[in-house]
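can u do me a favor
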């Protein structure tokens, strides 16, 4: 009987840890009481046990009179995961719902599950997409260009074997040393041409002819992931420190959104969220800000802010003519 009680308490603690992680502002003693149907004293003992075992738990400042405890750093994410087929099941259920608000609720849940379960966003989303397509309940509708599979295979071989390729790109013959591929809505080949000092981005769908040569090259210490992390999207220019201020209306969405590998997220006392990161890619940052509508304010840098305002102004003038 004693062992069952002991295991029961362990189960209660794990349930509370997951509840802490699921709530932006953590949980209170009242939450513990209501969740487990226990007395105030028992709730206090459970809280003390959690604080003793997990020093990563933070006391979160809120306007509430009651104290809140939770994981502000997402520490518990590594202990929680969802298989792609589980998320795909929710995707399938979402499509059967008639009411828009219910669909949006399920979509929010799916977004949160992806956020806490993926170690590699591409692998998880590709697996989910593959399962949905196999079951015949989804089709891809991403804005992208068709890529010749033979071209892609040749590029992959060249990258693995450090061999140069000859291509016809935008009606010009080029000899390239391929370093890697970055893809989003389009696929980009990162490669060096001739004696250039820096890699350049080539749209793979614009490669009309390709030939694998015997000439090899040395990549040195080039790392495609490190290269990609310097920019917000695909295109690169001078890195800048970006600061964004998000309205409290989108607090949960922002906390579960991956903006950039260098991002730092701060919850402000008024409910707003400050996000900072260092990256290049001026145009892609601006394109991404459009998605957040009037829920985001670009604080800095001034140069990027001026360009953002210029884009908004030109877009508005185009619509009202």
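np, heres the sequence
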């Amino acid at each position: 009987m004693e062992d069952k009680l002991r295991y029961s308490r362990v189960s209660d603690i794990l349930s509370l840890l997951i509840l802490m992680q699921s709530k932006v502002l953590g949980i209170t003693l009242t939450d513990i009481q209501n969740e487990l149907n226990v007395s105030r004293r028992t709730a206090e003992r459970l809280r003390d046990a959690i604080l003793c075992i997990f020093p990563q738990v933070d006391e979160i400042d809120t306007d509430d009179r009651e104290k809140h405890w939770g994981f502000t750093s997402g520490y518990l994410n590594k202990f929680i995961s969802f298989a792609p087929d589980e998320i795909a099941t929710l995707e399938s259920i979402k499509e059967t719902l008639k009411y828009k608000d219910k669909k949006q609720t399920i979509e929010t849940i799916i977004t949160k599950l992806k956020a806490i379960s993926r170690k590699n966003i591409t692998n998880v989303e590709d697996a989910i997409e593959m399962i949905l397509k196999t079951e015949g309940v989804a089709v891809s509708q991403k804005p992208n260009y068709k890529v010749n599979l033979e071209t892609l295979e040749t590029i992959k071989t060249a990258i693995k074997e450090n061999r140069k390729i000859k291509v016809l790109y935008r009606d010009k013959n080029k000899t390239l040393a391929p370093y890697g591929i970055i893809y989003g809505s389009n696929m980009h080949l990162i490669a060096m041409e001739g004696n250039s000092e820096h890699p350049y981005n080539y749209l793979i769908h614009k490669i009309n002819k390709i030939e694998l040569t015997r000439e090899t090259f040395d990549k040195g210490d080039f790392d495609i992931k490190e290269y990609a992390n310097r920019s917000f999207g695909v295109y690169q220019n001078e890195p800048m420190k970006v600061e964004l201020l998000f309205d409290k209306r989108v607090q949960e969405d922002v906390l579960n959104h991956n903006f950039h590998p260098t991002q730092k997220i701060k919850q402000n006392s008024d409910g707003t969220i400050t996000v900072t990161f260092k990256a290049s890619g001026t145009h892609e940052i601006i394109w991404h800000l459009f998605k957040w509508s009037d829920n985001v304010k670009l604080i800095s840098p001034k140069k990027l802010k001026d360009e953002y305002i210029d884009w908004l102004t030109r877009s508005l003038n185009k619509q009202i003519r």
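The domain at 230-316 is CATH 3.30.70 (Alpha-Beta Plaits). hope that helps!!
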